[in-house]
UniProtKB/TrEMBL annotation:
Organism: Sphingomonas cavernae
GO cellular component: membrane
PANTHER family reported in the protein's UniProt record: CATIONIC AMINO ACID TRANSPORTER 4, INNER MEMBRANE TRANSPORTER YGJI-RELATED
GO MF entries: amino acid transmembrane transporter activity
UniProt KW keywords: Membrane, Transmembrane, Transmembrane helix, Transport
Name of a matching Pfam family: AA_permease_2
Record-annotated membrane-spanning stretches: 28-47, 59-78, 90-107, 114-133, 153-172, 179-202, 226-246, 258-287, 307-330, 359-378, 384-403, 415-435, 441-459
Principal cellular location given in the protein's record: membrane
Membrane topology of the entry: Multi-pass membrane protein
Localization per record: Membrane
Superkingdom of origin organism: Bacteria
This protein's name: Amino acid permease
Length: 475
């Protein structure tokens, strides 16, 4: 047992009791689609405007910086996921390498990441639905399309889409993943159509000044601005490949499928993002883009393509739920593994004998996501979700580096190139982005983990299966 609690033995990481194992139903096309489905979503459809508000045309640079940090983290994830092909992602890696207490902090942060990511996308989906209906001459009552912060009562569209996706996941993982492939194709087609229309309207005047708010994060006019401030929030647009790592236990051929899924989804999405970002801020002045909650559709309407704007908005409505699906899938698996380890109530880790899915925890996740989406602002939710993700990336890169030193004998199906350099860059980049978030967001994140640690010491530590196995006489 180390200073940070017991470590889970490597031999037991992939061994699970009957009735608490996830069914192996996913192949590499499912995993690439899961990655692309999670990565390409609200970040590019809705947060382009938020990023433009913070960095101006240099939001393009912000996308490049966030993508570079994520690429380093993705390489670390690919090595760790193929080394430990079981559910849980960064939580499981931390448990085996860093110790139970740090694993709890990472897992608790991942719960925040995935659930708030789902809520962010649900809010973004609701904005596209309202805009799409408005363009068709239908206006919904303000009381049901925004939370208290927007002068309404509840964001009902966001609540309904979250609950619907939870229901789909309860039906079965393979069925949901196959349906997700269809949604991803629709989404990528819409983004390609947007770039094809907006890129010819590129005007260099819209790119001047390129960096109106500077490079480093700073407070200006009561708002956090700068390229790094934008990178800290558009970072949300890139992560999602960690959900592929979380699916490791359900992969048919983990060694091959996980590597293809993680690296492939990141490569595809980086190319898409750069093309769309250049098209967006080059076609319309960034000030106008920043004021829209549905920037891509807004840009097409501004360029005189209302019909295409309607089609892109419709594609977003159809395809954005794929992000909710993947993130809610990842969240439920983190919850599931923590419960299977005894850190949360064990009854939550029961798997349906019919579908092979954790029905109870998926239902609870859906209700929580719907509640957050119904009452909170998009930018605040996204920033808080980013904090949880950044910590998970740091833990994964650190675990990879430590294992290279302590266990060079382990067979690695995928080996991260120059692991010490890549891991160090991932950690440094994530730390910088973390501290580029608004101080209020960091304060909320710390409060979330204080609450989490209180739960851990009052409940989880006493019932941990690893603690019981290590010192049964002390429990």
């Amino acid at each position: 047992m180390g200073f940070w609690g017991p470590r889970k033995p490597f031999e037991s990481v992939t061994v699970h009791e009957e009735g608490r194992r996830l069914a192996k139903t996913l192949s590499w096309p499912h995993l690439i689609a899961l990655g692309v489905g999670a990565i390409v979503g609200t970040g590019i459809y809705t947060l382009t405007g938020v990023g433009a508000d913070r960095a101006g045309p240099a939001v393009i640079l912000a996308f490049a910086i966030a993508g570079a940090v994520c690429a380093c983290a993705a390489l670390a994830y690919a090595e760790m996921a193929t080394l430990m092909p079981t559910a849980g992602g960064a939580y499981t890696y931390s448990y085996a390498v860093l110790g139970e207490t740090l694993a709890w902090v990472v897992g608790w942060s991942l719960i925040l990441e995935y659930s708030l990511a789902c809520s962010t996308v649900a809010v973004g989906w609701g904005a596209y639905l309202v805009g799409w209906l408005h363009s068709a001459g239908i206006t919904l009552p303000p009381e049901i399309i925004g939370g208290p912060h927007a002068g309404g009562f509840v964001n009902l569209p966001a609540v309904l889409v979250a609950l619907t996706v939870a229901g789909a996941l309860i039906v079965g993982t393979r069925e949901s993943a196959t349906f997700n492939i269809v949604l991803v194709i629709i989404k990528l087609t819409a983004l390609a159509a947007f770039a094809a229309i907006a890129l010819p309207a590129f005007d260099s005047a819209n790119m001047t000044p390129f960096m109106p708010y500077g490079f480093l994060s700073h407070v200006e006019g009561g708002e956090t601005r700068g390229v790094m401030a934008a990178a800290a929030i558009v970072f949300f647009a890139f992560y999602g490949f960690d959900a592929v790592a979380t699916s490791a236990e359900e992969a048919k051929n983990p060694g091959r499928d996980l590597t293809i899924g993680i690296i492939g989804s990141m490569a595809v999405c980086t190319l898409i993002y750069m093309a769309v970002a250049v098209s967006a801020v080059g076609a319309v002045n960034h000030v106008a883009v920043a004021q829209s909650s549905e920037p891509l559709a807004f840009i097409l309407r501004t360029l005189g393509h209302p019909a295409m704007a309607w089609v892109v908005a419709l594609a977003a409505l159809i395809a954005l739920p794929s992000v909710i699906l993947v993130m809610m899938y990842g969240q439920s698996r983190i919850f599931f593994v923590m419960a299977r380890d005894g850190l949360l109530p064990r009854w939550l880790s029961a798997v349906s004998p019919r579908t092979g899915t954790p029905v109870r925890i998926t239902a609870i996740t859906g209700v929580f996501v719907a509640a957050v989406a119904g009452f909170f602002r998009l930018d605040e939710i996204a920033e808080l979700a980013n904090a949880g993700t950044l910590l998970a990336f740091i833990a994964t890169a650190g675990s990879m580096m430590l294992l290279r030193r302590s266990r060079p004998d382990l067979k690695r199906v995928f080996s991260c190139p120059k692991p010490m350099l890549v891991g160090a860059l991932a950690i440094a980049g994530c730390l910088y982005l973390l501290f580029s978030l608004p101080s209020l967001t960091i304060g909320r994140f710390l409060l979330w983990n204080v609450i989490g640690l209180a739960i851990y010491f009052a409940y989880g530590r006493l019932r941990s299966r690893t603690q019981v196995a290590a010192a049964p006489e002390a429990i």
